[in-house]
Amino acid sequence: MNELKVTDFNGQKVIDSRDVAVMVERDHYELLKNIRLYIEYLGAGNFPLSDFFIESSYITTQNRVMPCYLITKKGCDLIANKLTGKKGVLFTAAYVTAFEEMKQAIIKPVEVSPGGLAKLISITRRVMLDMGCTPQEIGLTMQNIYRTWYIPVPELHINTISEQLKLSDYASLQEVYQEALRQRKCPASGNRQGKC
């Protein structure tokens, strides 16, 4: 009973008035009457109505088109302020929780598996090679992919772009690799001789 579903409607997060009616244990028709009254008051006060309520409809099981409203967070606040007692508290807690969960889902980065990321990089590289892109362009694109998924860009990758180090240049790769190992063993000392 205390679960509300937030959906996205043209960039606005909304809850269906039918769900609100169930939550506050009121007849949907009665809630619509109240919303229409709120809309009348908001219109008289020159408030943008779509910031609170968006007129909508749904189809019943008898194939009848019936009115409903998509209610924004501001609209939920308005309805909640008119409710008292247990129903008011439960509705407020439910809509605040639902909107917060939607907000967290939006800002939470999508997780990607290492295999999925490797496949993305491989396909992107292959397509860019087919398009005739330069190694610098491919390298910069790979850096952007790493950053998009909040993965630290490997230092070797950065050096490759700036110095055009080739993977076939084994001696240079070995040198960079050894330097990276020395840095890992003695990160704070700054000693490049490998002695900590």
Summarize the structure.
The chain has 196 residues and is α+β, with helices and mostly antiparallel strands. 58% of the residues lie in helices and 11% in strands.
Oligomer: single chain
Give the integer mean of the pLDDT values: 77
Regions with little confidence, pLDDT below 50 for 5+ residues: none
Percentage of residues assigned to helices: 55-70%
Describe this entry's structure for a reader.
By secondary structure, the protein is α+β, with helices and mostly antiparallel strands. Helix content is 58%, strand content 11%. The protein has 8 helices and 4 strands; from the N terminus they run ββααββαααααα. The protein has helices at 17-23, 28-44, 73-82, 85-107, 114-130, 135-148, 155-163, 170-185, and strands at residues 7-9, 12-16, 53-59, 65-71. The protein has a 4-stranded antiparallel sheet. α3 packs antiparallel against α4 (85-107), α5 packs antiparallel against α6 and α6 (135-148) packs antiparallel against α7 (155-163). 15% of the residues are buried.
